[in-house]
Design goal:
Elements: H1 2-37, H2 44-65, H3 74-78, H4 81-115, H5 129-155
Helix pairs in contact: 1-2, 1-5, 2-5, 4-5
């Protein structure tokens, strides 16, 4: 039941990232149309950037869980299985720590922007906590995904896919 809930969380974050990519496209198109028709829609460049940043952060956990993050496996493939397990545990622990810090500070940043009524310096004057929510939520889901990976590694249930493509040099 927990595994199913976690997978739904990662998928929901990926769908939200996809919606943000569509938002980026719409803002870019709207900005192009505005140059020719002059409907005076302010801030399309800023909103496209906000959507793009949110899309990137919201997609991180899903990408991790689908084994699509770039991994440098040269050292892992050269050591015995016991050392490989130790290196995996060390790297996942470091990832949990770093993503935890990033999550904490991105949530704190979003809260402080809301608390101080901080707005963008562009002509749209968007309250900055709104676009920062995507970063905060994405980093929170990434933290959950790294904790999930660490727990699965400790329990011996983690599966990593070794790509044949990584073994070939061009």
């Amino acid at each position: 039941m927990i595994r199913n809930s976690l997978n739904k969380l990662y998928d929901a974050a990926a769908w939200a990232a996809a919606l943000m990519m569509i938002g980026t496209l719409l803002m870019v198109v709207l900005g192009m149309v505005d140059r020719y028709v002059t409907i005076n829609f302010r801030g399309t460049d800023m909103y496209a950037g906000y959507c793009m940043a949110s899309a990137g952060f919201l997609a991180l956990a899903h990408t991790l869980k689908k084994n699509e993050h770039i991994r440098v496996t040269l050292l892992l493939n050269a050591v015995p299985p016991r050392a490989k397990k130790v290196l995996e545990l060390w790297s996942l622990s470091a990832a949990v720590l770093l993503s935890g810090l990033f999550c904490f500070y991105s949530i704190k940043l979003s809260y402080q922007s809301w608390d101080f009524n901080d707005v963008s310096t562009g002509n749209d004057a968007t309250p900055l906590w709104l676009p920062q929510i995507g970063m905060a939520l994405g980093s929170l889901v990434l933290l959950i995904a790294f904790i999930d990976e660490l727990v699965m590694e400790i329990r011996g249930l983690r599966v990593t896919v070794d790509s044949e493509e990584a073994l070939h040099n061009e």
